[in-house]
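Lay summary. Proteins are chains of building blocks that fold into shapes, and those shapes determine what they do. In this project we predict the shape from the chain. Here is one chain we studied, written as its sequence of building blocks.
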Amino acid sequence: MFAHRFKTGLAAAVAAVSVLAAASVAEARVDARKLTCQQAQALVQQQGAVVMSFTNTAYDRVVKNRLLCNRGLITKPKFTQTLDNPKCHVGGICIEDPWKDSMRPLFRRN
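And here is the predicted shape, written in a compact code that computers can read:
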């Protein structure tokens, strides 16, 4: 009887944690369209990296500098619509370095 109650309680706890985790992930995304340009820029500068929505379906991780990208990635400036600016520079998004492979022959040892 104890084992059954334990399993039922454990299952309920796991379900509750997963619901809370899903809710916090949804809240963690910031909608750039609901912020002023200055607010969006300040948020990225303060947090370092922010998952930001640009439309109802488009979002990305915006970073304040290249150090917050994985190795081999660089930043590309991200401009998006905010409350007061249709093309606000909010920070950068991490992309693969387009020059990485083209520069490799220059540094090859023979």
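What the prediction tells us: The beta strands are 30-31, 49-53, 59-63, 73-80, 88-96.
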